[in-house]
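Hi, here's the filled form for the chain we discussed.

Project: internal
Contact: R.S.
Residues: 258
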Amino acid sequence: MIRDALGRELELARPPRRIVSLVPSLTALLDGLGLDEEVVGLTRFCVHPAGWKARKAVVGGTKDVRVEKVLALEPDLVLANWEENAREQVEALEAAGVAVYVTQVRDLAEDLAMVRALGELVGREARGEELARETERAFAALGGLEPLRALYLIWREPFMSVGGDTFVSAMLGEAGFVNVCGERERYPTLTPDELAALAPEVVLLSSEPYPFKEQHLAEVAALVPEAKVALADGELFSWYGSRILLAPDYFRRLRAGL
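And the returned structure, exactly as it came back:
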């Protein structure tokens, strides 16, 4: 019996054979758990692993899932996330009798618990435990980084950052950064004057959801001239699951370049 993020208990009669993933990071995790043929559907944003979108059914985006297309695949398990997916679409799938496992990952501990739980749910318990332990070891080796006050921007026009209750904020902490928006919730909008008032030592421009590029560095640097402004790989700050194994080495390289 597995309990999901909404506190609901899921018990499958057998390991699922027809899985639809509505979350890109969970799609990558299914691959990391050793599944392939069992995954029959995914979203258009599921870019990892390479090649899956070309040979599996695409059921829409994370916020605009085509419920009828999911149901046509006759899934025995759908994976969703409480923030990334639309509640009404998840509820429509449940109303049709589909088993839906909903995740909520806000920090490293919740990531590790989710990896273990999902591994058990899909019949890959040993591999899930292995991935979780590899992740624990990789992050444990990150210790000793000097704290730096950081502003992490995810959007432009208007500027948006991440609050202290997000997974990205938790990853900033793991990388030795102090989130200057840590006292705020979710994804606060910031004016140029507010950016300056936060007085960050570092500003990180994420590659997603807004695709910040080299040409944006000077624009932001003009608003916070005393801060170091750098581009950041948004996947490695926000994709929980198996992709997070790549994060510790990336965090070291990022910090070394500041």
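Let me know if anything looks off before we file it.
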